[in-house]
RNA sequence: GCUGGUGUGGCGGAAUGGCAGACGCACAGGACUUAAAAUCCUGAGUUCGCAAGGACGUGUGGGUUCGACUCCCACCACCAGCACCA
C-alpha cells in the first residue's frame, strides 16, 4: 500500500462534495426528520483562525453524524458582513466595502471548504446583501409600527475613537466592543428598541435553552432581575407641610426602620420641581454640574469616595415611623435604574454606611450583627436569617418572617407596592457609521418619523467614497444629500431620511431564520419552512457573544413570534459555547497574537483530517485549550494506521473476535457525538484500532462500520478508503446500530476487597448472579487467606466491578 | 465584593459512588537498521525496597459511606461574568 497522500485525497473529496452538492438540506423531506446545526457565522474580515477551526469542526461532526442517523440536516453558513473590518478597510484604503465583503466572503468560505465542512452552499448570504438586509429593515419597521422602536434624547455611551454611539452591550466593562477605547457619555438623540420589556421572556429563553450554567448565569446577570418594593416617602417643607412625594426602590424593605436619609440621583427631576423650596439651590446645581462632567464609567469605577450634596429646605417622612429624614443628592445613585432614588440605611448597606460616615449622619441598627466596621449587608443577614431589632412590632422576628409582614403593612397603608427591576436597558440601536443597514425611517417636518413601506425596501445604502462622520458627529450618510433628501411616504412633502445605520448586531439577530428560506423575495422566510426547520437544534459559537448577540437573538425572536412572523419562541434548543484556543501565553489565540498559528499552516503540513482530530483531541468543546503541536504525531500515526487497515482487510461479516469491541465503539462514539465529547471518542477509536492490528485482521464488514463511525471526525480519509474497498459512496451509508448483548465480555476481571482493601483480582463470568460471584471469588487462594479465621458480616457485590467482604 | 465554574502524573486530559490516572504526548529500555529517521514491542503516579511487597496519593481540612476525584460542610487557589443596580 502506498503512503497516504493527504494533499491529493483531501482535495479530491472537497472538490467532489462541492460538485455533487453533497450536503444539501431538503425542505419538507417526506420521510426524514429534520436536524438543524448552526455555527455562528464568521465576521467577514481576513483569513480564518484557530477559533473558527475549534468552533466549526464539532458542528460539522454533529451534522455528518446526524445525516448517517437518517436526519435531514440543515447546516448552513453565511457572513456577518456589516462590521468594522469592511469599514476600516474602506477608511484606510478607500476600497468599497461592498467589494471588500464580496472578496472577503469568497476567501473565508473557500478556507472553510479546506476544513472539509459539510455546509449547504446553496444557502449562503452575507448580512450586507441587499435581499438580506431588506428583511433586517423590514423587522425594524415592524418594531417601529408596533411601538417597540422610539427615539429619545439623552446621555448615551459614545466611543470617541469610533465616533459613534453604542449600546450597553457594546460597552461592557466601560470599553468599546469594537476598538477597546474607554466609552464616554454623550448627549444625543438615539433610537432605542424596547428590549427591557422583554426581560421576563428573555429570562424564560435562558431557562429553556440548553446551555452551560456559567453562560446562563452570565445572561441572568446581564438582564439583572431584582425583586423588591417601591415605597412612597412624602416630602415636606421646613414647617412640615406636604409638598410632594418621592418613590424609592428597595430590595431590603426589612431595613426600613433604619432609614436615616434618602439619596437621590443628581439627575432626579423632583429637585427641579421643588426648586423654589430648596434653600441651597446654587449648591445643588453646582453639585449636579460637577457630577455631570464625570462619565458614568468614572462614577462607577471610583467606588471608594462618596460625594453628595444635602438638599436644604426639604425633608422626607418615613411612612412607617413618621420620622423626618434629610435628602441628599449622591452620584452613586443611578438615574437610569429603579426610581433614581433610594432609602439610605447605613447599618445595612455598605454604600450608605460610608456615606453616613462621610457626612456624619446618624445610624440606626435594625438587624442584629456587628456594625462596628462594616454594614451588616443583605447577603450576610439573609444567609443567617438574622433577627430584626429597633423595628417596632417587628423587632425580634426573623427576617424570613418580618420581611413579608413589613411589606404587607406598607401595601395596606397604600405607600408600597411590589416591583421588579432589571439592569438591562433598552437597546440603543443607531450608529453614526456608513457600513450598516440604513434605518428605514423618513423624518418629515409634518408627520414626524415615518417608516418606509415594505414595497420601498430595501432602502439601499448609497455609494460614497467618504466614510467618516461629519464634524457634528453625524453619520457619513448625512453627507450624501441626494440620498438624504426625499419625499415623505405619508404626505409626499419634502423630508429627510434618517442617516444613522444599524449596529452590526442587527443582521445577526435573525439570520438563522433566513437560512430556512434564503432566497425568499416575499417574506423573511416562508412560514411553513420556518415551521419545518423550527428552532436550531444545536448552535455552536463563541462565548464572547453570550451577553450580546445571543440576548439580542432572544429579543428579536420573541418579538417576531408575537407578531406572528415566526412559529417558535426559542431560536435555539441548545447553545454550546466554544472554548478558546490559547497561545503559549495563555491568551486567546488570534491573528493578532504574536505566536498565533494559522489553521491553514497546520492543514498544509498535516492535512485537514489530522488538524481536525488534533483539535478535538486537545480537550472538550467547551474547554479552553492551549495550542500545541505536541501530541499531533499521535494523531498522524493514528491516521496512518487507519490507512493501513486496507492491508489487513479480509472478507467476512463481523468476527467473533471483534464483535464486542465494535459494539462498544458504536455505542461510545454515538454518545460522544451527541454531546460533542470528541476527545474520548477518538480515544476509543485508538483502542479499537490497536485491537484489530494486534489480531492482524479486520473484516470488510467491520471496516465498513468503522469508517462510518470515524467519518464525522475524519471525513476525507474515510471517504477514500470506503470508495477503494467498497466501490461506493460512504455518504449513502447508515449509522451502524449496536446490540446490547454484545457490550459485555463473557468473562471480566473484578477486584475483590476485604474490608475495602483489594486482596485479589479474579476472572468471573458475567452471567453469574451476585451470590454466585461471591462464592466464586472465595475459591481464589489470596481471598481465602485474607478471609481465614474471619467472620463475614456483610458482602457487597457490584457485578463486573467489585466484591467487598466486610469481616470481623 | 457578589455570582457561576474549575482544581487529577512532566504535559493535554479519562473515570453512572465501585480496581484513579483511559487515550495521547514527552520520557526510558529493547527490536529492526551499518547508522539515523520511521515503525514495532515493553516499562513507567510518588516513594521505600535488589526483589517479592509495603506506604502515600485526585488543591487543603473535616464529614457521610463497606467504599469518595465523584456527595455534604469549611477553607485556599485559579478562570469567567457582573460590579456603587439600592
Mean pLDDT: 92
Shape: flat
Unreliable stretches (pLDDT < 50, length at least 5) are: none
Class by alpha and beta content: alpha/beta
The radius of gyration computed from the alpha-carbon positions, rounded to a whole number of angstroms, is 33 Å
Q: What is the helical fraction, as a range of percent?
A: 25-40%
Give the N-terminus to C-terminus distance in angstroms. 64 Å
For the secondary structure, the number of strands is 29
Largest sheet: 5 strands, antiparallel
Summed up, the helix count is: 26
Tell me what portion of residues adopts beta-strand conformation: 15-25%
Describe the structure.
This protein has 808 residues and is an alpha/beta fold. 36% of the residues lie in helices and 18% in strands. The chain contains 26 helices and 29 strands. The strands form eight sheets. Strands 6, 7, 10, 11 and 14 form a five-stranded antiparallel β-sheet that branches. A four-stranded parallel β-sheet has the order 2-1-20-21, covered by helices on one side. A hairpin with a 3-residue loop joins strand 28 and strand 29 (802-807). It starts with 5 loop residues before the first helix and ends with a strand. The protein binds one RNA strand of 86 nucleotides through helix 7, strand 7, helix 10, strand 13 and helix 11.
Brief description of this entry?
By secondary structure, the protein is an alpha/beta fold.
